[in-house]
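Justification of computing resources. Each target in the renewal requires a structure prediction run like the one illustrated here; the chain below, 166 residues long, is used simply to show the kind of job we budget for.
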Amino acid sequence: ALELATLTGFRRADLVAVTLGEVSEHAIVRTAQKRSRGRRRRAVVPMIPRLAELIERLRQLPRKTGVETLLVNSMGRPWTGPSLTQAVNQIRDAAKIVQPADQSAGTPERKKHLHDCRGTYVTHLCRAGLTNEEIANIAAWSVDSVERIRRTYVDDAAVVVALSER
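Resulting structure tokens:
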């Protein structure tokens, strides 16, 4: 589930609901569960090799008859949102995965969450050179949200790297 989240940028509701039928050779096309400004955005996630390999592994999982979701639990049934969050949090806590404190910003250490994978995915797309509009279409976000992620996590880091290289 974590790997799928970081390779698609899907929200939890979409992670547990995405079906095999929404997967094609070139993309995963899904209308987001969440409504934004009264409408649902459509995510078109390009099929990169790592995502294709993951989907092939997910197709091989044992599943109950009629279950078409990509993600299934150990009983071959679809995950529910709360049970997926609980499982991810158990892994996070066992591995002690946290966002370190930032003394200069005055922010304390905090536990990472499943939803943080969305920002990670968008950050990767920014660093791959896609435009804000392209990323918004892929991730089913608004262009403004992509711009905020780019400004906060990508552009600031690029400035620091450039300064250190000089």
